[in-house]
Amino acid sequence: MGPLTGPGSPDRWFVHDGRIYIFASEACRSSFTSNPENHIDRPDAAPAGTEVEKRRVAELIARALAAFGGARNVDALRSWRASIAGTAKGNSGPVETLDSVAVLFPGRYRRDYAWGQFRASDAVSGAEGFRSENQTAWPMEAFERDYTERLFLRHPLVLLQARRDPEFRAFAAGRQKLGDRDVEWLTAGLRGATSRLAIDLETGRVLAVAFRGRAGSLGDIVRTYSDFREADGLTLPFTTELSFNGKPMPSAKRTYTSIELNVALDESLFRQPPDSL
Question: Where are the domains of the chain?
Answer without folding.
Answer: 9-38, 51-270
